[in-house]
Amino acid sequence: MNLLRFAVRRVAEMAATLLIASFVVFGAMYLAPGSPASFLLSGRSASPEAVAAINAQYHLDAPFAVRYLRWLGDMVQGDFGRSFTYRTDVSGLLADRLPTTLLLIAMALTVVVAAGLFLGRIAAVRGGATDAAVLISTTIAVGTPSFVAAVLLQGLFAVKLGWFPSSGSGDGLLDTLWHLTLPAVALALYLIGMLARVTRSAMLEALDSEHVTVARSRGVPERHVIRRHVMRNALGTVLTTGGLIVSTLLVCTILVETAFSVGGIGQLLELATSTKDFPTVQAISLIIVALFMAVNLLVDLLLPVVDPRITLGTKGAAA
């Protein structure tokens, strides 16, 4: 299938999925117990007139379908509504906090790719004691949830040793990078183990393939065999886990940001959920869905580039 046609079709599917997701997100929030009006009143008793005024101000008195269509139209125009908690535009909150979360995810993803590929490569190539050591370490990593890693790293490197800040996101680029180092490692630890194991398995499979045997029989240096034939063939399998890795980062960043008090959208989502800040929860949820779908589209487009054996089929990228 033509690459442009494939991309256009996938973008159309993404738009349809976002539309369905928007309805689910909007409807699910209004099925939750309690109401925005009760939160806005902070538990104080109010006259029916006061409650009616609040409902009218936030369009809570309109029928569900009208509220949804009005909200959807505003979202399309970039208007995410007004936060119940902060009493300000949600778009302003997102503009302040989203860059921090994206930087944290980028740092964690860099650590995952660098460490995961390295560990998986040396385990497959060297074998023996090195392979056993990598398997043991990755088993520990995979068995350590992000919030547990956050607590352990914070207690050791921030509180006991004082090498890194224990909370906050810093001021300025370098200070922000310093503050986000421990959260990025905590976020990446589980995924390093997963990617290392995927890389190891893919490379071991490639090492047993016929074309690798032929290349070795022709006297091709081992380092070239590993780089050109083994690692390149394994990258296709590794790349298919990209969507899972990013989706895990998007979900786990909520826990890690809360543990380190990082002022990103993860911590904002946790607070907004606990306070029934509907507009904020809805906006962040849709952003996460959109990011996840964009990553999956990027992976599908890169697969044929990384591995020419993979072609774009009528239902996506298929070998």
TrEMBL record:
InterPro entries assigned: BPD_transp_1_N, MetI-like, MetI-like_sf
Transmembrane residue ranges: 12-32, 101-120, 132-157, 177-196, 234-260, 280-303
Every ABC transmembrane type-1 domain range: 98-299
Keywords: Cell membrane, Membrane, Transmembrane, Transmembrane helix, Transport
Highest taxon of source: Bacteria
Entry-linked PROSITE patterns: ABC_TM1 (PS50928)
GO cellular component entries: plasma membrane
CDD domains tied to this protein: TM_PBP2 (cd06261)
Record localization: Cell membrane
Membership in a protein family: Belongs to the binding-protein-dependent transport system permease family.
Protein name: ABC transporter permease
Organism of this sequence: Streptomyces microflavus (Streptomyces lipmanii)
Taxonomic classification: Bacteria, Bacillati, Actinomycetota, Actinomycetes, Kitasatosporales
